[in-house]
Amino acid sequence: MRVNFTVNGRRQEADDVWEGESLLYVLRERLGLPGSKNACEQGECGSCTVRLDGVPVCSCLVAAGQVEGREVVTVEGLADFAKQRAEHSGHGGACATGACGGTSLQDARSWTAKGTDSQTGEGTELSPIQQAFIDAGAVQCGFCTPGLLVAADELLEHNASPTDADIREALSGNLCRCTGYEKILDAVRLAAARQGEAV
Amino acid sequence: MDFLRPAGWEEALAAKAEHPTAVPIAGGTDIMVEINFDHRRPEYLLDLNRITELSEWEVGEESVRLGASVPYTRIMENLRTELPGLALASHTVASPQIRNRGGVGGNLGTASPAGDAHPALLAAGAEVEVESVRGTRLIPIDEFYTGVKRNALAPDELIRAVHIRKADGPQQYSKVGTRNAMVIAVCAFGIALHPETRTVRTGIGSAAPTPVRAEAAEEFLNAALAEGGFWDSGKIITPSIAKQFAELASGACNPIDDVRGTARYRRHAVGIMARRTLGWTWEQYRGSGRTLEGAA
Ligand SMILES: Cc1cc2nc3c(=O)[nH]c(=O)nc-3n(C[C@H](O)[C@H](O)[C@H](O)COP(=O)(O)OP(=O)(O)OC[C@H]3O[C@@H](n4cnc5c(N)ncnc54)[C@H](O)[C@@H]3O)c2cc1C
Ligand code: FES
Ligand code: FES
């Protein structure tokens, strides 16, 4: 079957989709967006987290056919998404409709955090949460990072100064096997503090 | 496989009548796991996401009519006052991502003895509104669970909503698991005080082939509270009553040994949860002002 939906603000069309296929599979294998990770395919790890009509979900548990006509934001579009949200704050937040430009599939596919310096993120446009993950040293192997970024960004969108309990709760569906979570908590606190300063 | 995408409820009922083997998919948090792991290859998937009324609820005089697909997150955020037991139970389900998609309709569809909504529904008192092209019927929650992962739905029926009695007293939900998030219950216990009818109802999860009420424990407690004039006096429930209630709750279990826990442990833990949740709710009823938290 064919599925039409919006990914990172742009209309996309996926063809030859098998009816039992997940949104995660469509993103990775049909649209060439491997940012969302596939670790468990059973909702346990959160590494496949995307926004579906704004709501964080495990894309491995959404049937492809269920996203017809709906809006998805993946980690590849997160920097643009956060930028638009910042520009539009005060009147309705981020724009997922494409009217603000969004991220093209080409740009999304070639998205990298390398910039001029892969250690610091310098030279690349990163969302505040991405920059904070780098600055706080919250990335080790990086497999869990995309899902955590999407979940943490959504937390900071609706809760500008989360408590530690809020952060733990919001990230309780994302597993990390490397960091021990402390640096991840640091990163979210850092992003929240910077967000606070900016206002 | 065919993917059916009805735009409305009538269309969904017609599709289910035409293809009784079609598997409804709401949040997909149960069904997609089975498909991803090749445990299930349904001939038809029947997507319910476009049927907006399934994600809505109405608060009535006596009860809340909760649409089958209202996600747990919405229940936690919006129905704490009306459905405190279910809101607490919802909060223990999996993770935010899963709670944003999964709902009570899917929990009832799967009818796992470990489903967290069940003990809360049993304790509050509920009826499941199911519909087919043949008509609508209300199934009392006590009659809904018919076996391990089996329910009373006919092949052409869909769950439209659950009618849950609005709380008229304190409710609690307690769940045993190895951590706070992302945990399937080793066993669970729900309790609801109903001061208007001077009754206490319960629900036990993961400790029998189906979710069950601890009926003997309820009967004993209702009689003991009435006899001792506890509802009027609001005095502390004596330890011997609480102990007997816990033992009877334990006796209502018919658990198995599995990877999550032994039968013996489950019986024991259900007794402990019964005593504790009775204590918490009764304290709340007495209006001591102590803040109560659901605990795992
Ligand atoms: C990682 C993970 C952790 C989990 N943890 C928990 C937990 O802690 N506690 C818990 O209770 N559950 C848990 N679950 C299971 C699941 O999230 C719940 O059972 C949830 O309520 C299912 O809802 P859904 O809408 O996603 O169901 P779906 O997967 O869409 O459907 C489930 C079943 O119900 C049927 N169905 C759905 N809607 C209807 C309807 N309207 N009419 C008739 N049939 C219908 C479907 O055909 C299917 O058989 C977990 C799942 C995952 C993946
Ligand atoms: S891959 Fe989806 S939650 Fe693990
Ligand atoms: S950084 Fe390796 S899993 Fe989190």
UniProtKB/TrEMBL annotation, chain A:
Q: Which InterPro entries match?
A: 2Fe-2S-bd (IPR002888), 2Fe-2S-bd_dom_sf (IPR036884), 2Fe-2S_ferredoxin-like_sf (IPR036010), 2Fe-2S_ferredoxin-type (IPR001041), 2Fe2S_fd_BS (IPR006058), Beta-grasp_dom_sf (IPR012675), Diverse_Oxidoreductases (IPR051452)
Give the record's keywords alphabetically.
2Fe-2S, Iron, Iron-sulfur, Metal-binding, Oxidoreductase
Q: Gene3D superfamilies, alphabetically?
A: 3.10.20.30, [2Fe-2S]-binding domain
Coiled-coil stretches, from where to where? none
The molecular function terms in GO held by this entry are: 2 iron, 2 sulfur cluster binding; metal ion binding; oxidoreductase activity
Pfam families the UniProt entry points to? Fer2, Fer2_2
Q: Which CDD domains match?
A: fer2
Q: Where is the 2Fe-2S ferredoxin-type domain?
A: 1-78
**Name of this chain's protein:** Carbon-monoxide dehydrogenase small subunit
The organism named in the record is Streptomyces wuyuanensis
From TrEMBL, chain B:
Where would one find the signal peptide in this protein?
none
Matching entries from Gene3D superfamilies are given as: 3.30.465.10, CO dehydrogenase flavoprotein, C-terminal domain, Uridine Diphospho-n-acetylenolpyruvylglucosamine Reductase, domain 2
Q: Oxidoreductase among the record's keywords?
A: yes
- UniProt keyword Flavoprotein, yes or no: yes
Q: Which PROSITE patterns match?
A: FAD_PCMH
Domain of life, per the record?
Bacteria
Under InterPro entries, the record lists: CO_DH_flav_C, CO_DH_flav_C_dom_sf, Diverse_Substr_Oxidored, FAD-bd_PCMH, FAD-bd_PCMH-like_sf, FAD-bd_PCMH_sub1, FAD-bd_PCMH_sub2, Mopterin_DH_FAD-bd
Q: Which residues form the FAD-binding PCMH-type domain?
A: 1-169
Q: Which UniProt keywords apply?
A: FAD, Flavoprotein, Oxidoreductase
Q: Which GO terms describe its molecular function?
A: FAD binding; oxidoreductase activity
Name of the protein: CO or xanthine dehydrogenase, FAD-binding subunit
Q: Which organism is it from?
A: Streptomyces wuyuanensis
Q: What is the lineage of its organism?
A: Bacteria, Bacillati, Actinomycetota, Actinomycetes, Kitasatosporales
